[in-house]
Design a protein that fits this description.
2 copies of one chain form a homodimer. The first copy, chain A, is an alpha/beta fold and about 350 residues long. Helix content of chain A is about 40%, strand content about 15%. Chain A has helices at about 20-25, 40-55, 70-80, 90-105, 145-155, 205-215, 225-230, 240-260, 260-280, 305-315, 340-350, and strands at about 5, 60-65, 85-90, 110, 130-135, 135, 140-145, 160-165, 180-185, 195-200, 285, 300-305, 320, 330-335. In chain A, the strands form 3 sheets. The first copy, chain A, has a 7-stranded mixed sheet with strand order 2-10-9-8-5-3-4. In chain A, a hairpin with an 8-residue loop joins strand 13 and strand 14. The longest helix of chain A is centred in the last third of the chain and has 20 residues, at about 260-280. Chain A is globular, with a radius of gyration of 20 Å. At the A-B interface, helix 1, helix 3, helix 4 and helix 8 of A face helix 1, helix 3, helix 4 and helix 8 of B.
Amino acid sequence: MSNKIYFTPGPTQLFYTFEEHFKRALALDIISISHRSSTFIKIVEETTEALKELLELPAGYDIYYLNSANEVWDRIIQNLVDESSHHFANGAFSKKFYDFALAHHKSSSVTEVEDGAIFSDWNIPEKAELIGITKNETSIGFTTTEKELANFREENPDKLIALDIVSAAPSLPIDFSKIDTAYFSVQKAFGLPPGLGVWIVNEKCHEVAQKRATKTSLGSYRSLPNLKKFGDKHQTPETPNMLAIYLLGKIANDMIQVGLKKLRNDTIYKATILNQAIESHESLNHFVASKEHRSKTTIVADAKDPSKILSFFEKKGIILGSGYGIHKKNHIRIANFPTHSKESVEMLCDLLKDIE
Amino acid sequence: MSNKIYFTPGPTQLFYTFEEHFKRALALDIISISHRSSTFIKIVEETTEALKELLELPAGYDIYYLNSANEVWDRIIQNLVDESSHHFANGAFSKKFYDFALAHHKSSSVTEVEDGAIFSDWNIPEKAELIGITKNETSIGFTTTEKELANFREENPDKLIALDIVSAAPSLPIDFSKIDTAYFSVQKAFGLPPGLGVWIVNEKCHEVAQKRATKTSLGSYRSLPNLKKFGDKHQTPETPNMLAIYLLGKIANDMIQVGLKKLRNDTIYKATILNQAIESHESLNHFVASKEHRSKTTIVADAKDPSKILSFFEKKGIILGSGYGIHKKNHIRIANFPTHSKESVEMLCDLLKDIE
């Protein structure tokens, strides 16, 4: 790796044990062995077990390995939605899930507010079979609170709830018992190269998919019944991104060793000093007005001249994230993932003082 | 890497320059930079250009980066087939493409012969919009000849022809002007880790997809119009397996440096001595009876006791492929990819003489 530090919200700085695990993977020929070998089946099993422990996943939830969060949106709609889903959108990614449903010609609906604004209307059309909500909107640094998610479940006991936990897992606590399906990609908080998306589903999702399969096509190799058929044997339907599955398991285990409590306390500490640095800075302001909805893993600030800040840091070998999409000219984004050490974040906060 | 040599037909021995390129990718932070950065856009462009040169792709063909050959089957059916496709199946993988069409509830048809047998009936139902054929059936080592492919085009000028070039590209010459779409995964002849599938389509495929898009859904992020929208800018709709795209480009360029003629001559030389070794062996026989249909990249032999041969070689650090699926107890498979040196294949042939 170069000497730069990437605080970009994914792809990001590689997890600090990445290279060591990669070398070990090469030495063990993980890349050359058969994906149907007992060695690889054991790797899938170990990765799944590590993730279940790290994410504190309750019993009755399965984990499947896809290729991106984009693909999970695609497969959720294909597998779990007959006619209509409903989406809560206040940023580019939550909006995109809704767009995917429309691309599949579903008569889906959306509750859309301004980017970063809180939702006041939580009503959901009766016809919606699935609700799409985002734990951590990476594009603008907005977090849905655990209380909001608990209310969701209570008010919609029969609908499927799909939670986007990209850039949230494993840094933010999530009560999986309040949702039916969730997903993340590994190039965010896990500090891995992109190319793997993790899809978590519960029994209710399997039931919906099985019922739908009797009357319609759920696609082919990535239909939920087919994922389950292979997943139950710790296998994947296709030759998967084997290296990524191996590395994800190793890094999940490293995080378990660090301790989930410490990892989350560190996340809070780093978010706190980053927030203070923004508040005490003359030309920076929090983008998300509501304090409790500010993301702890993706710190987003309004800036007078983002490019000036970005290039100031770049000269020092520190890469911050630019604003996403329409916010490119107004925002800076700073990722706060487990691979970002407290020391590096403290340094970043100190440096922020030196630029107007 | 360990000291073992993998002659398995994918995942297989890594291409001999893999580690060097991987280290360079780390040093350049290829894994941490944004997939929308100009640096990565240039990488996609360079990989595509290298592939076009290496595969001798005519003008008018586009290349898109998916995640596996399985996914390409899925997306071909989703994007290009309204009601029906027709498939030629004489092995597990050609059969599987047909199964994918059925899973999508298409009224597809199949010309199926015994594994490894040649096709005598080339008739195709009028209703078929797309024909699925396999250049190199990796499961049993069968090759469709260039003459057969040329006849196909001649007799079916209006149908889309989809050619599976998994384990064929770039070792076997392919006349792309005779087909409309083709695909391969990188863990075969390119000697890369699995997790990337390459989809090649021509203008006719784009026309079919655009026409279908006016009346039906082609899926979401991986619809052909969306792939084209991003691909025209050397981008992908989602955050892709960036490392794999980078490495594929580097290895394609290495192969260009070696020279396509030499690479293919070496393939023929190695296939010839492997075939001779099988013919002069008492307990081995070619599985594919027709000489001209025997694969040069996946050598498959009937064996009295495959496990004895496999374990004999394994003790010497040489991993051969077992038979695929129903042939596990009767076949051995030996991959002959560009990463397998002439010397290593000569050694393998010599060792074969030492075992009954």
